[in-house]
Structure formats: structure tokens, C-alpha cells
Amino acid sequence: MTCGAQCGTVSALTLQTLNETCACMPISSQLVVDAIARDSQILQTAFAERSVLFATTPVFLCAADVGYIEDLVQAIETALHSSSYRALADQRDTPEDPQPAAPTPGLFMAYDFHITEEGPKLIEINTNAGGAFLVQGMYESVAARVPLCGGNWGTPSEPDWMYQMLVNEWRSAGRTGVPARLAIVDDAPHQQFLQPDFELARQYFEAYGIEVIIADPEDCVLRNSRFEVAGCKVDMIYNRITDFRFSDPRHKVLLEAWQSGAAILSPSPEHHNRYADKRNLGWLTDEQNPARNSLTGRLLDLLATIPKVQEVSEDNAEALWANRKQLFFKPAGGFGSRGAFRGAKLTKKVWAEITTLPAGSYVAQQLVQAPLRHIGGVEQALKYDIRAYTYAGGIKLLAARVYQGQTTNFRTPGGGFAPVVIMENISRL
Predict the structure, then answer these.
(1) Same domain, residue pair 265 and 361
(2) Could you tell me if 320 and 257 lie in one domain?
(3) Mean pLDDT of 370-379
(4) How confident is the model at residue 323 (pLDDT cuts 50, 70, 90)?
(5) Contacts (Cβ under 8 Å, ≥6 apart) of 163
(6) Does 388 lie in the same domain as 406?
(7) FRET pair for 28, CA 20 to 30 Å: which of 10, 248, 263, 316?
């Protein structure tokens, strides 16, 4: 198998060479959109308003790195499920009212990585990672239209994995059978950038016989222990709200529905607190944390590969400012690029604002440079990261996000979600 005249024989190449030079598998983002939206006027309209969702090239990843990512995900979830780490999470600003007695794995978890010379480096853990349905549709489109030049697509082996995940989440919460009606809830969902993802989710689950409503929290009510949307009883909520603790009064109905068990809600505030609060990475990378005493050597070895994270406080503010060029600063409960700052671009004014916040409001993360991917027709190579969608500690889907700038943004020509090609027997460098 060859990778075109420019690249030569795949077996003689490295992963870095493929990503920096290979242009043998161009993707028409418009053809991807047309394939996904062919039978839906709603999707056709939504895609027309969102021009940079899919990249124009795949991203290569070596099989050994995929194995490491899965091992690390399992190690992190094993650690965070341990009694010592759960005790730490329970002590930290969780809602005071009783929580559901049956914790669940959490829908659409995701772990984001930068690929480095030393291997993948974890950047973030997410509990309501968007885009999985868009990525699934992208793979179905490119697999039918783009011949592989070696390797395998980073798609799941089980085509019904998202349905099985939803059913498992439902039953993990103590319910039987399957939910009859699902609500996908977000603020102003039809105005969200990833609104096509919601519509694809609706189509997907309705094909399995589950009625789906896409709703704003203002459409939701809790009446006589029933969670309702537009007068219809809802059994389960796929939560896309980024107010992770439901602290906004508009989201009180969701908090009450979750706490009372009127509807199964996932991901929940508990999921965010246990996994995605960025202070968790500080616990996991702190060698002095006594919670680590219950962990085995193999787990500790894997956790040692995570870039260091520490909470910003009055005690370490001076040292962090002095070392800021090697750090990335993020709000502990934030998401995406909101409120995030690369240390080299951090101003004294913004730093003063950060350091006046309560301790733990921000974290400082060891800076890991994003790798580069050559994009045909674009003058400069673009950055990318790797997103592993997971459930219960197992990888279900891999995607890349190609971009230019400080963080992923879906505004870069040639960028967007990209399929991953997993290469066997190939070195990273």
C-alpha cells in the first residue's frame, strides 16, 4: 500500500511525516455535509449557517497511542472511582440537596489529547462532549467516498454503540427496559453552534423507537413528580447545558428532576464534579496527594504521564506568574476556550482578576504544544487535537479537531472535525 508519490511507502514513514506531509486522502467537507443532510431540510438549513464543521483531511494516529489512550482513560476512571478520590469530590462544592443513589457512567464522556514526541498528552476531560453524532455521520460519509491509504478508520466496531450506551445509562440508574421519551436539553438549542448534532441525535434514537424532543429549559416543568416538556412526560434527559452545577435559576427544574428521580439525567452535576472539574487533574498529578496511597504502581505510572495541573491560589500566584510562559490557565469549571488563557499572552490586568477569585477558581496546566497537520490548499499547517469519546472507561469513537489559534474554534478554513486513521506498526517519529 502506498501513500502517493509525495509520501512513498507507508511502512517507511513515521506518524509525524504522514501528518506533516501526506495529502493523499483529500476530503470534500461539502460532500460530507451533503451526505449527512441529504434527507433533512432542517439539517440542510443548519449546515448552511455553519460553514466550518468538517476538515478537508483525515489525521493519522498510531495504534500504540490508541492503546495508551485507552489505558490512561481506564486508569483515571479507576482512580476517580476509588473511595479516597470520591471522598475528595464529595467534600467539594457539590449541591447540598440529596443526589440520586445510583451513579451512572455518564453519557458522551470525552478525553482530549495533544500528540507529542513522548506520546499523547491529556489536555482535558469532558462530561458533555458535543459532536459525536456529527463525527459518526462524517465517518459514514468518508468511508464510502475516500479510499484508505493504509490503516483503519477510528470508528467503533459496534454500529449501535450510542443506543447501547443510552440503554445502559438508563438501566444503571435502576430502570428497566428502555426510555420511551428522551429530551435533549440545552439553552436555546436551535441557536447552538452544534445544533445539527442535536438533530442527528434525534433522528438516530427515533430510529430505535425512542421518541425525542429537543428542548430549552424554559420548555420543561416538574409537575406531580413528572418531568414534562410541552405537556409530554419525559423519562430521560440528555443534558447539554454547560452550567454544570445548574446554578442558574433557569436550570432549577433540571436540578430538581435529577435529584428527585423524576427523570434520569445524564451527564449530571455529579458527573462533572467527579470527572471534568479541572481540579481533578491537579489531584491526579499531585504526587503528595494522600488519595494516591490506595493506587497500584501501574496506575501511578500512567497518571505520571498527565501534564501537571495545580490550583491557582494566593500562595502560588507569584511562582505561577513567573513561570506563566510554560503554562495554560483555565477556569476549573469552564469548557472550551471560555476564560482560558495561554500564559505567554496573559496580561497583568487579567492575572490580577484571576488571583482575586476564590482559591481553586482557576487552574494552571503545564503547556503542551498542539501538533500540526498539513492541509491541502491552506498555506500553513494547522493544529489538531485528538478527542476520544468514551463510555464506562472504554473508547467508543475517535475524532480529531483541526484548527488555528489558541484553542479549537471551528472557524478555520480547512479545519473542523476530522476522521482519524489508525496506523498499525508505525513509529511516532
Answers:
(1) no
(2) no
(3) 82
(4) very high
(5) 204, 205, 208
(6) yes
(7) 10
